[in-house]
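Journal club prep — side note

Before the paper discussion, L.F. wants everyone to see what a predicted structure for a comparable chain looks like in token form. Sequence:
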Amino acid sequence: MGIEKTDAAQVSLSAENVTSSQEGIDILPNFTSPQFLVDYDYPSVTALRDELSGLFKKYDFVLIDCPPAMNMNVVNALLASDGVLLPALLDVLSLEGLSQVLGAIERLMKDHQHNLNITGVLPVMVDTRRQLTTEVKSYIEKNFNVPVLKNHIRMNVKTAEAPSHGKSVIAYEPKSNGAIDYKAVAKEFLELIK
């Protein structure tokens, strides 16, 4: 998105570090784990929510991108959120990961009495030529108690190239399959959260 990595010591999750991207999106970069989230002597699962609560009121949407792990940073993001969209590969091995993540989220919400809406599962890196893709999507729809988005993100070279140019795929190659897919997913997402 055209935002350069800064010295890690200068990066912290604070409203004062919000910067506007070349594409007109405000971003709070977090290139390293913020120190207050990984204080293992006094860990806080609400540090992110507490730190950014005032900032949340300024925007219609705040999207928090998380790694595929259940660590203190992800716990903080989930407890600061009112919804979650779960990207998933449509392959057999990803089913176990999805099951584990959903179970962990359920336990976390119960333990902290937090209401989190599972907005849905977003199929990513989809190859529609494979029969396995259709079978895994169908399995998720039948066996997991979560919606699966109708739209998906296909495997696309332009999507992979865009970050090296400091742009989203929509700015980098607006007519690519990746850009088309992300626009369709965004439209469906807005409908789901109405």
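L.F.'s comment for the group: The CA atoms of residues 52 and 58 lie 10 Å apart. Keep this in mind when we get to the figures.
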